[in-house]
Amino acid sequence: MLGGHPTKTSFERTLKTALRWNPRRREIMRDLLALMAAVDGPRLEILSQEHANALRTADPASGYKYLDVALYTLQKLLLAHELGLEGGLPRRVLDIGTGGGHFPFVCQFFGHQVVGIDIDNELYKGIAACLGIQRTIVRVTPLALLPNLGQKFDLITACDVTFNDKDDRDGRRVYWTLAEWAFLLDDLFAHHLEYPGTLYLKLNKEWQRGFFGSDRLFFNRELLAMAARKGAVISRRRGIIKFSLASRHEIR
Ligand SMILES: C[S@@+](CC[C@H](N)C(=O)[O-])C[C@H]1O[C@@H](n2cnc3c(N)ncnc32)[C@H](O)[C@@H]1O
């Protein structure tokens, strides 16, 4: 498998856990191997060498982890199955904060058309190039409409989002407010989602004050509750929000 060195054990663990009870494990393994065969291996090897030092010392949660192309392609392959993208008609997909482009890579493999937006980042750009994916540079900004992306999308995804992480104030992280989230969701529903359509968000945990006064990582409970009230299917455990909409929807 390609780019497997940094988190080889987590790849094997994910693979084992994900596929043990999965009735489609043969199909998933076959697709993963086909996807890995499509990676520009020599280019990925050069990129990994360039970042070898940083990779050894970096926080495991840092962006260098995405050099483990096999692990993150597997994750996105499992997501593609969860969203029913492994079959059916070609769909138009918008992936917000696309990172190294692992999800667009899987979507394209299944014949879908994907626009992956993100801010500029040389490492992510390099990984995406190894996957044959082009990133579109668009910054998500609180309380600002996204630009016209030239089309509407049947599916909008945003996985492990960090665009809501605003800054550090007095030693504490500051995240988007509910009003800022509502603004983004309404913009996506009004201007970027085709109906029927699906919006899928996988949150990152936020530092919040825990019960005993110390900061701990939690998914944003208020956001999850608001999404549930507005008709989304949510997972509090996984930090997932999924709107499956037949027609235009509003949050505010
Ligand atoms: C944790 S990574 C997740 C990458 C990818 N979605 C995945 O699941 O593999 C978060 C991504 O959000 C992007 N990002 C952060 N702030 C952003 C902003 N304001 N607008 C767009 N993308 C942003 C980062 O550059 C990074 O690619």
How is this structure best described in words?
- The chain is 38% helix and 23% strand.
- The protein has a 7-stranded mixed β-sheet, with helices on both faces. Strands 5-6 form a two-stranded antiparallel ribbon.
- Helix 6 (102-109) links the parallel strand 1 and strand 2.
- The protein has one domain: Vaccinia Virus protein VP39 (Rossmann fold, 3-Layer(aba) Sandwich), CATH 3.40.50.150.
- It has helices spanning 8-20, 25-37, 41-50, 52-57, 69-82, 102-109, 122-130, 178-192, 221-229; strands at 92-96, 113-118, 135-137, 153-159, 165-169, 172-175, 193-202, 206-209, 215-218, 233-235, 240-245.
- It binds S-adenosylmethionine.
- S-adenosylmethionine is lined by residues 72, 97-99, 102, 118-119, 121, 124, 139-140, 159-160, 162-163.
Which fold name is given in CATH as the topology?
Rossmann fold
Q: Major sheet: size, sense and barrel closure?
A: 7 strands, mixed
Decide which structural class fits the backbone. alpha/beta
Total DSSP helices: 9
Protein name: Methyltransferase domain-containing protein
Organism: Reyranella soli
InterPro entries: SAM-dependent_MTases_sf
Topology overview:
Layout: H1 8-20, H2 25-37, H3 41-50, H4 52-57, H5 69-82, E1 92-96, H6 102-109, E2 113-118, H7 122-130, E3 135-137, E4 153-159, E5 165-169, E6 172-175, H8 178-192, E7 193-202, E8 206-209, E9 215-218, H9 221-229, E10 233-235, E11 240-245
Helix pairs in contact: 1-5, 2-5, 3-7, 5-6
The structure holds S-adenosylmethionine (SAM).
S-adenosylmethionine binds at residues 72, 97-99, 102, 118-119, 121, 124, 139-140, 159-160, 162-163.
